[in-house]
Amino acid sequence: MVTARASGVRSLLLEWPDWRPPNETFIESVDSVVPDIHELVRFGIGLADVQDTFRQLSSVKKVRLPGQLNPANIAEMIDSVVGVGGSSEFPLLVDPDNLEAVASALVLSTLLKPLLLGTQVPVPSVLLKGSRVAVATKMSLMLCSENCFRSEHVQEWLLQAYQAPSCCMIPVLAEDSFRVPAASSVSAEFPESALDIEDLHLYGVIIRVLFQDIAVIFLPQSFSREDLDLRAQQAARRLSAPQETLQSKVIRFMDSADAPTAKRWTEVPLTAEDNDTS
């Protein structure tokens, strides 16, 4: 904290409900409460620096954390902390109710940013509840987790991504338990979907064409840091290479002989026979 203050680094204080800032009594006696504090002298940090930093905590921007994190408040908290969630030309799509998948998306976004500097690829950000896929979107990653395609948010975002004429999309496998939907029809796979028949048909086609591309495998819970860096580098190379837009893939599929007829709109095959994730 002392180094950040001395360097002018913008800081954010995360407060648990029962946290209280250090009072003057604690600040004045901090060297007796923390006897090893004088060891900081070797780093050019004196007792007065620590005390001044404690006193200035009251002027630091604060985000008050809820007593318990849950899907209802995690999106708001993440948005406050890292400033994600708004529209972006490069959104990472992820089931917002799957906290582990959201965390994976944040890790991937963080690793990609320095790798994409100097390229034509926009800065990535994680899309959260209440946000939309902008019409100006250029690139997107779909982080696939168990049952992610049943999420009403993912359904809306993929349909919005299709409407973005320049949007290219690459699938990312973010959970070992994820399986490409293999039901014989979208109506069977998503029986509780609120989409109308035309949008449900289109949604099935989007999923079908999405997995015509080889997926990036990104599993923070299973990979070492070196593995994650390697996967991020692979993703960055894919993102920097020429891509066909999602809209173009859908239209090409709909014009092909494999496309279902209008009378069978809800019988779009969802098998992943063309996708190799090895």
Summarize the structure.
Mean pLDDT is 82; it is low at 261-274.
For this entry, give a set of tags.
Rossmann fold; single chain; elongated; 278 residues; 2 domains; five-stranded parallel beta sheet; alpha/beta
Description of the molecule:
The protein has helices at about 1-5, 25-30, 30-35, 45-55, 70-80, 100-115, 150-165, 185-190, 195-210, 225-240, 245-255, and strands at about 10-15, 60-65, 90-95, 125, 140-145, 170-175, 215. With about 280 residues, it is α/β, with parallel strands linked by helices. The protein has two domains: about 1-65, no CATH class; about 85-265, 3-Layer(aba) Sandwich (Rossmann fold), CATH 3.40.50.10140. Strands 4-3-5-6-7 form a five-stranded parallel β-sheet, with helices on both faces. Helix 6 (about 100-115) packs across helix 10 and helix 9 (about 195-210) crosses helix 11 (about 245-255).
Walk me through the topology.
Blueprint: H1 2-6, E1 12-15, H2 24-28, H3 30-33, H4 47-55, E2 61-64, H5 71-82, E3 91-93, H6 99-115, E4 125-126, E5 139-144, H7 152-163, E6 168-173, H8 186-189, H9 197-210, E7 216-217, H10 225-240, H11 246-254
Parallel strand pairs: 1-2, 3-4, 3-5, 5-6, 6-7
Specify the CATH homologous superfamily of the largest domain.
Toll/interleukin-1 receptor homology (TIR) domain
Low-confidence stretches: 261-274
Strands ordered across the widest β-sheet = 4-3-5-6-7
Estimate the helix proportion, in percent. 25-40%
Rg, alpha carbons: 23 Å
The 3D shape can be described as: elongated
Secondary-structure element string: HEHHHEHEHEEHEHHEHH
Q: Report the sheet with the most strands, covering strand number, pairing sense and barrel closure.
A: 5 strands, parallel
Query: Number of folding domains?
Result: 2
> Count the strands?
7
Structural class: alpha/beta
Q: pLDDT average, as an integer?
A: 82
Beta content comes to: 5-15%
Report the span from N to C terminus: 44 Å
Give the CATH topology of the largest domain: Rossmann fold
CATH architecture of the largest domain: 3-Layer(aba) Sandwich
CATH class of the largest domain: Alpha Beta
Question: Helical stretch count?
Answer: 11
